[in-house]
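Q: We require from you a single protein entry containing the residue sequence and its fold in token form, and nothing else.
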Amino acid sequence: MIVWVNGTFGAGKTSACRELVELLPGSMVYDPELVGYGLSRVLPADRLAAVSDFQDLPSWRRLVPEVAAALLSEVEGPLLVPLTLLREDYRDEIFGALAARGLAVHHFVLDPAETILRERIRGRDEYPGEPERSARVREWCLDHLPRYRAAHRWLSRDAQLLDTGALTPRQTAQRLAELVRNGAARCPIVQSVDATGDTVAAAVLLFDEQGRVLLVDPVYKPAWEFPGGVVERGEAPTDAAVREAAEELGLGLDASALRLLAVDWEPRTGPRRGGLRLVYDGGLLDAAARKGLRLQLEELRGWRFVTLEDAAGLLSPGRFRRLAAALEARRRGELRYLEAGLPAAQGLTGAVDAA
């Protein structure tokens, strides 16, 4: 189990987690900043100079859940993670990777009033005897308050907010322990933990009257997606496409009306599984059908219709190439076979160039 204690700088995350260790038997504090410090010792200086925060390093976001899983194989757990995480796409990436490893995440935000936060920050003395260095830290914390305000909307939707303005660290920890035990802050991310082999997945493209295609916003990954999912054992891909549309969007599609547009072989990348990806044309989703859409809230937070140009900024490069090829196949009335989103003749070399 992961207990992620979020909040802006000065909210009291570390102090609360130090107290919480005593209240949750077998727990330990895991600070992902240590992963960042490790990367700073091994990455080239020019790569580090390109970012202002460890969190902007893809390697950091990938290693944080890997290290968490490794630590939980050594201790009873849970892991207490006192870390400010204000970008929703980074949250999706990290929490999705944890969920894929079967690790439950309880997400909290310590949320005192801003006046209290400012008072706490101004009273901090990070480096006793080094007033100038401590002043720089205080200024840095104050400068990040607008980022926290901007993130507050999605944090309040995703996490259990806890007003700690009148609470001591011990009282905060007691409240956190109570919420952990009753599961009030557990993130409802549904992910398969079987990541041992490649998969077959089926997606459905649905269109509005302007020819725009429907994309969905998963809670467990940073990029948008097509409606669809992994084909279950013994299940026909077309049936999987219909089932996923029903589960994710509340739609009742007719399997006989679906037309296969593209078959794409996706290579395995790191821990992400590869395999065959089938893309179906689900046809027009008219105004009446759109009113009846019901999102599977455990997996999706939103949907929208987009043009191909819009999709370039929402999909991963491979998904975008797959969409572009599927739309072209739809226009021409063809079926396309792809590898990494490109015609097979181009192979992976073309995929690397296109990325």
Residues 347-355 have pLDDT under 50 and may be disordered. The CA atoms of residues 248 and 297 lie 8 Å apart. The longest helix spans residues 317-332.
